[in-house]
Specification:
This protein is an all-alpha fold. The protein is built from 19 helices and two strands.
């Protein structure tokens, strides 16, 4: 690239922002006197120095962000910021090792929700809030990434969800970034505040409510209790169900709703919303029936089934029960649900609902053409005709996604994990779900007992999954670096 200054400038602002956030946590810790202020003040100082250097190096750069620069900044941020954000976990009361602290930080920023920390119920408030805030930031970050950058990278059909106002000339990321960012930021904040109010009304304390609001709307799944949402009231669990769903729906659909433009084609993604609810409904019905067979009351069976199905599909990772105890069929269902994910342009991870929609419609179109070779009726998604390149993009992403899962499972097995833990560990990290299957990393388990090498591999898979794989792979293409 000819101009690295914009990379330094943007990276400096990001690091300065996180340093300021650490400073605010230090002030808050001083006010509540939970003995973590020193760790946060030290983190802020460590961050402000390189941030100042980066800002000085990049000062005077043009504000316009080009495609290549955006990719480099994105990868640097998602791999670099977790190391900085891990400092309070190392310097504070938890005194986590470097690997454990980075794992917790990566899991937070990618909104995966896997944790190596136990004793959450008695942990310092400022540390619990720090990890919750990381997930909230990660959630809004992935919305921006999936709307502003991935469509230009043509990652697995994401080009189908461009805003009509996007300006592709000279590879500008978006024509009106400020307006879009303000709109989505306002929606995200509004949903978080509504979720907070819901939790307060159903019995959570103010601190518990704000933490869970931050990690519910972001579909992250960090909790203030080792028992996750099972520690809280039935009313709180229903609130969680509702807002996990809102976080997994495309935020561009909310934008259209606020603009009274429900009929517009393109980035709303209303087809995938329908498919999302169909999949949730079918899985919930199966799990409810399974619980009823085991003599559970209807409302208890429905709530447990619906909560845990939605938690896994939206990649939130909360748990109210150890669904591994529901039998091998339930384990198989939840394993496959791990890959599904939410809608494109949401905070959720996973394969994404719209890709299943594209593949299904492409298959149906192919079968129709086999039956009627002269048929010219094109398949459509979000009001747009599916081109051969769109289908090829989704098919290629599907192959790479499966290959990444397989390679991840093999590498995890090489670190000493059993087959079930390797498979579910790779799946839950790639889809950013949180809990896996098995005695170690299941819904009732914890990742702390895993070897350091395993945690590093899982952390890398989490970032790959969050960046939709191709965002990282494109850096290894020689032509990407040519002017």
């Amino acid at each position: 690239m000819r101009d690295f200054r914009v990379i330094f400038l943007t990276s400096g602002f990001l690091l300065a922002g996180m340093s300021l956030l650490a400073l605010l946590h230090g002030i808050g810790s001083s006010l509540v006197r939970d003995s973590e202020a020193g760790a946060f003040y030290a983190t802020a100082i460590v961050g402000f120095v390189p941030a100042a250097v980066a800002l000085a190096a990049g000062w005077g750069a043009k504000a316009e962000l080009r495609f290549r620069q955006a990719v480099v900044i994105t990868v640097l941020a998602w791999f670099g910021l977790p190391v900085f954000c891990a400092l309070p976990f190392m310097l504070g009361t938890w005194q986590l090792s470097f690997v454990d602290a980075v794992f917790e930080s990566v899991s937070g920023l990618t909104t995966t929700g896997s944790t190596v920390v136990s004793g959450l119920d008695d942990s310092p408030p400022s540390l619990l809030l720090w990890r919750s805030v990381l997930q909230w930031i990660g959630g809004v970050g992935i919305i921006g990434l999936s709307i502003a950058l991935l469509p230009f990278l043509k990652v697995g059909g994401m080009q189908l969800f461009k805003m009509e106002s996007s300006d592709r000339s000279e590879e500008k990321i978006i024509a009106r970034p400020n307006r879009l960012a303000i709109t989505i930021g306002s929606l995200y904040l509004g949903l978080t505040l509504a979720c907070f109010a819901g939790y307060r009304l159903t019995g959570m304390t103010g601190f518990e409510a704000i933490n869970h609001a931050l990690t519910t709307v972001s579909t992250g799944g960090y909790s203030t209790s080792d028992s996750s949402m099972g520690h809280f009231s039935i009313g709180s669990q229903w609130v969680s169900i509702f807002f996990m769903v809102t976080g997994a729906l495309p935020f561009l659909a909310y934008v259209r709703l606020t603009r009274n433009n429900m009929k517009a084609q393109g980035s709303g993604g209303f087809g995938q919303i329908s498919l999302f609810f169909i999949i949730v409904g079918l899985a919930a019905v199966m799990m409810t029936a399974l619980r009823l067979i085991e003599d559970q009351g209807f409302w208890t069976a429905l709530r447990e089934a619906l909560f845990n199905v939605i938690s896994v599909i939206t990649t939130t990772g909360y748990a109210t029960a150890d669904y591994q105890l529901w039998g091998p069929f339930a384990m198989a269902v939840f394993f496959f649900l791990t890959f599904v994910g939410g809608c494109a342009g949401s905070t959720s991870g996973g394969f994404k609902i719209f890709r299943f929609e594209v593949l299904a419609k492409a298959l149906w179109q192919n079968l129709n053409r086999t039956a009627q070779p002269h048929s010219l009726s094109p398949a459509r998604i979000s009001g747009q005709a599916l081109s051969a390149s769109d289908v090829a993009s989704v098919a290629l992403f599907s192959a790479v996604y499966v290959a990444t899962f397989a390679v991840g499972a093999l590498v995890l097995a090489a670190t000493g994990l059993d087959l079930m833990t390797s498979l579910s560990g790779s799946a839950t990290a790639l889809a950013n779900v949180g809990p896996g299957l098995g005695a170690i990393i299941g819904p009732a388990g914890n990742f702390s007992g895993l070897p350091d090498s395993t945690k590093l591999v899982l952390g890398g898979i989490m970032v790959l999954g969050r960046l939709e794989i191709f965002t990282v792979l494109v850096l290894f293409v020689p032509r990407f670096h040519t002017a």
